[in-house]
Amino acid sequence: MTNAHTTGHEILVEVSGYPVAVDRMYHADSHMWVKRLTPGTVRVGLDALGVETSGTLAQLSFVAVGDELARGRAFGQLEAAKFVGPLVSPVSGTVSRTNDAVVTDPGVAEHDPYGEGWLVELTSADETELADLLGTPEAITEWFGRTVEDYRLRGVIAE
Amino acid sequence: MAEAWRLIQDEGAGAAEGLALDEALMGAYGRGQPEAPPTLRLYTYRSHCALVGRYQNLQAEVDLEACSRTGTEVSRRPTGGGAIVMGAGQLGVALIDKAPVDKRPREIIEESSAAIVAGLAELGITATFRGKNDLEVAGRKIAGLGLYVDDAGAMLFHASILADLDVDFMLEVLRIPVAKLADKAAAAVGERVTTVTRETGQPHVGAAVRDVIAIGFAKTFGVQLSPAAPDRTELLRAAALVGDRYRADAWLNERSAIPDGSGSAVLKTPSGLLRMYVSTHGDLVKSAVIVGDFSILPRAVGRLESELRWKRLDTGTVAKIVAASGADRALSVSADLLTQTVLTAGRKASMLAAAAPVRSAGSCYFPEQSLERM
């Protein structure tokens, strides 16, 4: 079911046909990953399943650098097919950087969701909030595998 | 006893006013709001209004001079998708609720659309999904769909049901370059779009299909619908949104960072020359149309056009769609040639987009066809 390998800067594991990077943390409901860059700085992106179940990404937009975010609030918006919705921050913090590459080409977030397709960076990330995320490779792969199975049963993704 | 949903019914909304009330209704369903049953709004717009999608370029999609000449109002929807014309002939559907956290966007769109399918079935019309974006009847679009979830977690499911459609008017106000095909334009629309009027053989306007759509929602969700009016808070919020957003220049003139483009390529078939038109948003296909002397548009070609929408223009993706559509066999050409024709049209669209970034990407029905000789 899983097959680990390293690519670029990520440690990727294949779970039920989808890649998952296990060197970071995940917020299950939003399908957002959080990777610690330096103490107090994190990078945030959308996982492969979040990308797949949104549909082809047509547009990504972000709030301004310097904006303060509370956990659960939007740091941007995505358009995928006929869906327009918020990109929900899994942690609190101040937006320190946004990824221009995915604004001009959202396909980057599809092709490389854990690497070049990152979305924003936040400073002052709250350590207690990080502790609430899925943070061990075992917990991540178990949750991801279960979610893929559930989505397949519901017809959200192809068999 | 079945849960009671609030049903709001109104007629002749202005472009900004219609959209503003939909968004105002979302206020009761955001984070921290008490639990409340969903609100269903079934309404019509004033004849006529032209509404572009969330990230479209208004001036590229709508002929503003024609709008001014015909008294057509314009605005931008919060939902995605292409430009549409709304008026007495179309029924607007807005379902407002707290966005379910355990469902993905596709599921919400599909579940909400099932109610419209059920409503149309009351008229004897069998509608089905097309590429998860539209509802179709025998390969022709009868309703457009969209979903918007706001920052507070409230959702707005939008649909526009074509009870009737003034095709000539649509060709006049939307920048649908198929209009340049002159006498063939209306026929080309007719091959891809249908209406309740056409399907039933009886004239219908938007308001006339409201009751059956309401029945569809009641049956599908197992609820009762209780007619009501928006409350004072919602009306005040809607009034503010008209000025602050839906009529505001900043909202109307918003531009995407990703260029839209259009291009075409010729396809030689044993029965003659066809032209493939592709409109793009970056490397994404927004619409694809194959024009030729078809007596009847082959279903497989319609399938190909539909399946290409919202897909990326890379060889693997396009080849897979071509193979699955069967359009290569229907047109008696090789799958590889058809794939290459799509990619060539797409490459031209990208080149033109880079050269002229405000070019039209076309409406929800047709892509731009200017520079067709390229």
Task: Describe the structure concisely for a colleague.
The complex is a heterodimer of chains A (159) and B (374). With 159 residues, chain A is an alpha+beta fold. Chain A has helices spanning 48-54, 100-104, 107-111, 127-130, 137-154; strands spanning 2-7, 10-15, 18-21, 25-27, 32-38, 41-46, 57-62, 68-69, 74-80, 83-88, 93-98, 120-123.
The helix content of chain B is: 25-40%
Main β sheet profile of chain B: 8 strands, mixed
**Could you give a short account of the major beta sheet of chain A?**
6 strands, antiparallel
What is the CA-atom radius of gyration of chain B, in angstroms? 20 Å
Annotated CATH topology of the largest domain in chain B = BirA Bifunctional Protein, domain 2
Tell me the number of structural domains of chain B. 2
Low-confidence stretches of chain A: none
CATH topology of chain A: OB fold (Dihydrolipoamide Acetyltransferase, E2P)
Query: Oligomeric status of the shown chains?
Result: heterodimer
Number of strands of chain B: 14
Our count of helices of chain B gives 14
First-to-last CA distance of chain B: 63 Å
> Fraction of residues of chain A in helices?
10-25%
Uncertain regions spanning at least 5 consecutive residues of chain B: 357-362, 364-374
Q: What would CATH call the homologous superfamily of the largest domain in chain B? A: Bira Bifunctional Protein, Domain 2
